[in-house]
Amino acid sequence: MKKRFTATALIASAAAAALLLTGCVAGENQPAAEAAVSTDDDAGIVTQGGELNIDFATYNPLSLVIKEKGWLEEALADQEITVNWVQSAGSNKANEALRANAIDVGSTAGSAALLHRSNGSPIQVIDIYSQPEWAALVVPDGSEITSVADLKGKQIAATQGTDPYFFLLQALEEAGLGLDDVTVQNLQHADGWAALQNGSVEAWAGLDPIMAGAEAAGAELIYRNVDFNSYGFLNATEAFITEKPDVAQTVVDVYEHARAWALANEEETAQILADVAGLDLAVATKVITERSNLDVDNVPGDAQIDVLTTIGPIFVETGDVLEQSQVDDALDSIVNDTFATKADPTIIE
């Protein structure tokens, strides 16, 4: 049985926590930099002032659109909430920032979110931003490596704690190989591509849009499998969800507005990605139109749990998580569908 969280429970616990912590009502002797929280009989909790710390990432096109358009700033203007954008270089970096409370909301692959939840990070997925084919195994142009089996004994770049890393592990297992059969260099995504170019590794577990740029530059994708890619998770810390459920709802509402806009404006979405990621427009267009799959049900639930249930045991096999029970507990608690279920894309006119 998957655990779910209701809006009523969230609002009730958040109201109690907020009033206990502040000891006052909204707006009373509050410093400008701090959030004041009050309750409204019709709307529930209303956060006034303070900050929203949220990430943007080239692997999450919707985040780029929202940042470019200023929609979060617009939606939160009446509440005088300052939006601070922090770039995530990979799921691992987003998770590190979430765990350190440097951001309230961050973009990761589903596999990376499950890994961190399994290891005690208090995060939950509040929206699904994509179902991408964003990971594959990459070799240089002219490489003698043409299959996963050929990777035996080779040096491979991969970013541990991210979807390309778990893609690599699944691909190796399917080919009858394990981590002991290869040498993995733990490099951030961009550094992995650089290592492939300079010859310090013979293969790379790549991530779009960097991978699409590599492909355009002549690199070859020797193994693709969309089933080994997990979903794009928009995660939030439990503290943020509990203390500022109204702001969490606004974030999801804006994300769903951005999804509708991006699907209707693929060319401009690709241009935004090209500008931020430093890609040729043709490469960015390929990422948006062929690999991102933004047209997906935004409500997290069984579809994502099914994928993660397959990936989870790998964490234990590789020693990334101590016991399967930790993975099972994470699978039972990582989904929070409250906000996605109530998403209102019309929040922005």
Oligomer: single chain
Order of helices and strands: HEEEHHEHEHEEEHEHEHEEHHHHHHH
Count of separate DSSP helical elements = 15
Strands ordered across the widest β-sheet = 9-8-10-7-11
The low-confidence parts are: 1-33
Topology, number of strands: 12
Percent of sequence in beta strands: 15-25%
Broad shape: globular
Please provide a brief summary of the model.
The chain has 349 residues and is of the alpha/beta class. It is 45% helix and 18% strand. A 5-stranded mixed beta sheet has the order 9-8-10-7-11, with helices on both faces. A 3-stranded antiparallel beta sheet has the order 5-12-6, with helices on both faces. Strands 1-2 form a two-stranded antiparallel ribbon.
Structure description:
With 349 residues, the chain is of the alpha/beta class. The protein is 45% helix and 18% strand. The protein contains 15 helices and twelve strands. It has helices spanning 7-22, 61-69, 71-75, 91-99, 110-118, 163-174, 189-198, 210-216, 238-243, 245-264, 266-277, 281-291, 302-317, 324-333, 338-341, and strands at residues 36-40, 44-48, 51-56, 82-87, 105-109, 123-130, 135-139, 155-158, 183-186, 203-207, 220-223, 232-237. The chain has a five-stranded mixed β-sheet with strand order 9-8-10-7-11, sandwiched between helices. α11 packs across α12. The chain is globular.
